[in-house]
Design brief:
The structure holds 2 protein chains of 2 kinds.
Chain A (H helix, E strand, L loop, with lengths): L1 H34 L1 E4 L2 E4 L3 H7 L2 H32 L7 H9 L6 H11 L5 H8 L13 H29 L3 H9 L4 H12 L1 H16 L3 H6 L18 H11 L4 H26 L2 H19 L1
Antiparallel strand pairs in A: 1-2
Helix pairs in contact in A: 1-13, 3-7, 3-10, 4-7, 5-7, 10-13, 12-13
Chain B lengths: L1 H23 L1 H16 L6 H10 L1 E7 L2 H18 L3 E7 L2 H13 L9 E5 H10 L18 H6 L1 E2 L2 E2 L2 E2 L5 E6 H6 L12 H15 L4 E3 L5 H9 L17 H15 L3 E3 L3 H9 L5 E5 L3 H5 L8 E5 L17 E5 L6 H12 L3 H11 L12 H4 L10 H11 L9 H16 L5 H15 L2
Parallel strand pairs in B: 1-2, 1-3, 8-9
Antiparallel strand pairs in B: 3-12, 4-5, 6-12, 7-10, 7-11
Helix pairs in contact in B: 2-3, 4-14, 18-19
The chains are: A mainly alpha, B alpha/beta.
Chain lengths: 313, 453
């Protein structure tokens, strides 16, 4: 009987497994094989790890990596911190129209990536709303060339991304906060803890799993950043570079350029893709380590001790 | 063991299903085509065999291109002309964004699948060698099929690989200096003052115009290497020499072009823009007094109908470099026929008949779409010599035809976009004063070398 059940179970999951294998595992493995080849001018050569060697000396790759990490290190912490603050404000039951504010803050997350990028490009254009407003209220005497300066262009990208994604992360925190019992806050306030103190000592620690989750998701999302820089720089169609001096060139955009804008080398493109995979792996691992709960940390310590003892024995 | 067998059998079953799905999809479409066919011709639709034979009578040419107001509209016109004499030919003209056409073509050609490819595709001239050399054998060799003597030689050069010619030259990117005659007159410049000038002279004029009228002379996108390519092309030089060797740090014209970019920006005579829309808006709303670009910009210039009669055209400025002349090219594209296309011969016949021999067609698309073609007999036509009211009665297209013949012929090679990106990325360091022009060019060359290995 059990054998029969097992058989049926296998049949049922087989469809999903086959689809997964076909559209997930096969491309993953094949792209690794691709990364060991160089496909150029109609010839495919198996070059072993030459592409990985080339990547080390590729100035554009380093530019893309540097840009991606600059965006990651500024955008993700600022966004998550804002989301936390907004969430804890909106979690306060004494605030009126909470539903309205929540919806309003979440709304950017439903706009299309391209639409909001173009919107921000218009806002920050030389004759755009922001420059006009700043000029009118006499804060600046000449329009600022937001999109022509490498630093400000990157700032515009980060501001746009924060606008788009803060509400999205806020919802995760809000749902996490609903699970924290009111009693704890009440007890804290009876003990004389201020709102700020209970935010840092109660809300933050109890939200740790949620913070870990959003950090990992945002990190992965930012490492794969493509639509926003592509569109802020007119899709690289009229512009020779992605943003002024390639300041918006991210790793994903670089892959696109390697495959479709430049003389196509899908092999080298796959190599850059694999570098992103490795980076995501390393960063996620680090974040799990940092974000692990105390129980998990202790469990790990115990395991280590055990293995050490075993070795000694 | 049993389990493995089971998995394998399910796997093969599913694969079979997939294959069946793939196979079965084309059938219904041919069927419906056949049915439509029999309806229009009002023949008996009793037997499937008859349907099939009539559907093979009716042939279809698929075309991929971008820009509905230009390439697509022109292709529609060409299709209509061809259908007048060949009523059994259908056209499917697919409009996509330029980047999408390129991406789709790359992925399909790289996968070596011929299914799903069009019969005719539009490719930008800067990209043509890249496609031709990256996918040898993918495009039809038209050397003996089309009379290339009828086309501007510089265009034919761009689609030649090992002295075989692929493709049908289409629109020219002959460049012009299009300016607001009213604004420049207000500043005291007549048409003669603006004829065959140098870039340095243009900067002087720009300063004067700014002082007298407050208008900027150009709208200018620092990230766009277009003007640099115009300057280079006017000198007969490129980022590469004829053998494909990099000529960046030792390129006199390029060095002067970089210096000219800096001079233009330092002179404070431009409106900085980012991207196409802002760039066009600046001269459409009258903030910029001129635009220097390929002739395809005329359509966008004319979009500001309230400025009719206030524009004029002059040859592009030249560099001080001794081989630089007042004629250049920016962009432009050509049609290519896929070797593996279903209706390759029909597509060749179509291209030959309309694009390679119909002078009236070229007059029509010039009037309707502002397309300056590289088909030389067309330039003798009436539409080219007509005075253009928008340009104050100047016969701009006849002028452009003249300039087109002078464009220095160069081989763009494979890596125009890599080079463009390397130079513009390193331009900023020179503009800000952090590096000298020689250093910036050396950095660009280093980046380019690493890109094209």
């Amino acid at each position: 009987m059990e054998r029969k059940l097992k058989k049926y179970g296998l049949i049922f999951i087989s469809v999903a497994m086959i689809l997964l294998a076909l559209f997930m595992f096969y491309p993953v493995l094949y792209s690794f094989y691709l990364s060991l080849t160089s496909t150029k001018l109609g010839k495919t050569d198996f070059v072993w790890f030459d592409n990985y060697r080339r990547i080390v000396t590729d100035p554009l790759f380093w530019t893309a990596l540097k840009n991606t990490f600059q965006i990651l290190l500024i955008q993700v912490p600022v966004m998550l911190f804002l989301a936390l603050i907004l969430a804890s404000i909106l979690n306060d039951k004494s605030i009126k129209f909470r539903g309205l504010f929540r919806t309003a803050l979440f709304l950017p997350a439903v706009t299309s990536l391209i639409a909001y990028t173009i919107l921000f490009k218009m806002l920050f254009s030389y004759t755009g709303l922001l420059n006009t407003t700043l000029l009118r209220i006499n804060l600046i005497s000449e329009p600022i060339e937001w999109m022509s300066n490498p630093v400000t262009a990157k700032a515009v990208l980060i501001i746009a991304m924060i606008w788009r994604w803060t509400g999205y992360n806020m919802v995760f925190y809000l749902s996490g906060m609903q699970n924290i019992s009111e009693d704890i806050y009440e007890a804290a306030s009876i003990d004389g803890a201020s709102k700020i103190k209970s935010f840092f000592l109660i809300t933050l620690p109890l939200l740790k799993p949620m913070i870990l989750f959003t950090t990992i998701m945002s990190t992965i999302g930012t490492l794969q950043l493509f639509d926003e820089p592509m569109n802020l720089s007119q899709g690289g169609v009229t512009a020779a570079t992605i943003g002024p001096s390639n300041s918006l060139l991210t790793l994903s955009v670089y892959i696109y350029n390697l495959c479709f804008k430049y003389v196509p080398n899908f092999g080298y493109g796959a190599t850059v893709a694999y570098v992103i995979v490795v980076l995501i792996g390393i960063l996620s691992f680090l974040q799990f380590r940092v974000g692990a709960t105390d129980d998990e940390k202790e469990a790990r310590k115990r395991n280590k001790q055990k293995s050490r003892e075993k070795r000694r024995a | 063991m049993k389990r493995i067998l089971l998995v394998i059998s399910v796997l093969t079953l599913c694969l079979g299903l997939f294959a069946a799905c793939e196979k079965s999809t084309p059938d219904p479409t041919t069927d419906t085509n056949g049915n439509q066919q029999s309806d229009t011709q009002q023949t008996d639709s009793q037997k499937e065999t008859e349907d099939k034979s009539s559907s093979s009578d009716k042939q279809k040419i698929t075309v991929w291109a971008w820009d509905p107001n230009f390439n697509i509209a022109i292709m529609n016109e060409a299709a209509a002309i061809y259908q007048e004499t060949h009523d059994n030919v259908e056209f499917e003209i697919v409009e996509m964004a330029k980047a999408d056409v390129e991406q789709k073509l790359h992925t399909t050609l790289a996968s070596k699948m011929t299914e799903g490819l069009p019969d005719i595709v539009l490719i930008e001239d800067y990209n043509s060698q890249k496609y031709l050399q990256s996918y040898p054998g993918a495009f039809a060799d038209l050397t003996d099929k089309i009379n290339y003597d009828d086309f501007a030689p510089y265009k034919v050069e761009l689609m030649t690989v090992d002295s075989r010619v692929y493709g049908v030259p289409f629109d020219s990117g002959v460049s012009g200096f299009f300016y607001r005659s009213d604004i420049l007159e207000e500043a005291g410049y007549s048409a003669d003052d603006l004829n065959n000038i140098t870039w340095d002279r243009l900067i002087e004029i720009g300063k004067d115009v700014k002082a007298k009228t407050g208008k900027a002379i150009l709208s200018f996108d620092k990230a766009d290497g277009g003007l640099m390519r115009i300057m280079l092309n006017s000198s007969g030089l490129w980022y590469f020499d004829a053998e494909g060797n990099i000529t960046v740090s030792n390129n006199e014209a390029l060095k002067e072009a970089m210096e000219t970019y800096k001079k233009i920006l330092d002179a404070d005579i431009i409106i900085p823009t980012a991207g196409w829309n802002e760039w066009v808006a600046a001269f459409n709303n009258g903030d910029a007094a001129s635009v220097i670009s390929g002739c395809w910009i005329v359509g966008s210039v004319k979009a500001a109908t309230d400025q009719s009669g206030k524009w004029a055209a002059a040859p592009v400025p030249r560099l001080n470099y001794d081989k630089s002349i007042n004629a250049s090219n920016l962009g432009g594209s050509s049609w290519y026929i896929l070797e593996g296309a279903q209706n390759k011969d029909l597509a060749i016949d179509f291209m030959n008949e309309v694009f390679g021999g119909n002078v009236d067609f070229y007059q029509k698309i010039l009037v309707n779409n502002g397309a300056v073609a590289s088909y030389l007999p067309a330039i003798e036509g009436s539409a080219y010599s007509a005075a253009d009211e928008f340009f104050g009665g100047q016969a701009v297209f006849a002028d452009m035809g003249k300039w087109m013949n002078e464009i220095p012929s160069i081989n763009y090679g494979l890596y125009t976009y890599e080079a463009d990106a390397a130079i513009i990325a390193n331009l900023e360091n020179y503009l800000s004063g952090a590096k000298t022009v020689e250093e910036a060019l050396q950095d660009a060359e280093a980046q380019l070398k690493s890109q094209i290995q």
